[in-house]
Amino acid sequence: MKKIFYMTAVGVLLIVLSACGSSESEAGGEEKEADEITVGYFPNINHAAGMVAEEKEMYQEQLPDGTKVNYQYFPDGSAFMTAVETGEIEGGIVGPGPAMNHYVSGAAINVVAAGSKGGTVIMASNDSNISTPEDLKGKTFISPRVGCTHDVQFETMMKEEFGMTSERVQGDMKHVTGKPATYASMFEAGKVDAATVPEPWASVIETEGSGKVLVDTPEVAFGETLPAAVFVTSEKLKEKNPELVQNLVDAHKQATDFINENPEEAKTIAQDKIKEITDQGLEKEVIDGAWERIDFSYEVDESVLQDFADSSYNLKFLEEKPDLTGLVDKEFLKNG
Q1: 159: Cα within 13 Å, side-chain hemisphere
Q2: What is the CATH code for 14-117+224-335?
Q3: What is the per-residue pLDDT across 119-169, written as a single tens digit (0 to 9) for each?
């Protein structure tokens, strides 16, 4: 499959698996009629399948005639997962971290498809004198949150390949946190030396020229295998109305196939939709750069999610080793 494009708590213990990216749009909803549903997603590039499905009315195409489809845009993964659990939305696209968090906390939810993979990039400031990962010893790196998806990917790579860890576990690197949108300015101000960056912010930094790629997506831990987004629904809905869940998955698959077959049109849809929802535009050069680091795929491998959770535990972000058995249900992918 051609590679084409990213952006991921429930409790102090499990917040380490939370999503790292968020938007400024707010979630909201009203009581629904019996013949209407609501689908949720984030206005982020790695959620492009949601944007395409909305723009092309693919959910309406797959659902019974007359079904009204509403869309809800979320500021963070925890809000999304709460909406799924309460039935405020029937399902949609979210980062893998919040889905894992809520599942191990007892939520009756399932990942029924993936949304995209890839999009994490390790970058260094132009003035940091860093040319290889080994040069990070004694340096300061930034991630969106402690133990978030991108932090775990970076620290897993550094520990396994270079024997380096953060000061959090008596290691050699200083760790700070901040919003990815600020990384370019922090590089320029000399406040941090390196960053583990979700797209599209890596492409923003490249375009602005404030930093350079140190380790690109394929070489980052879980870089091409870990879902950057997953499609989630509730076990209650699955048991009550499996036909509806099948319709949702079929529309999601249709949107994903459209992205892979029509990348330029899909880019335009994503660019316009992000602008519409957030009132913040992304230049085409940034969209193009981010798109190249992502693989839009609905196939999901539960073993990768477990490996990622195990890595979080091994890095001491978690006190207990999580068991994700039962989180993924691929039956609807097989039936579609």
Answers
A1: 18
A2: 3.40.190.10
A3: 999 999 999 999 999 999 999 999 988 888 899 999 999 999 999 999 999
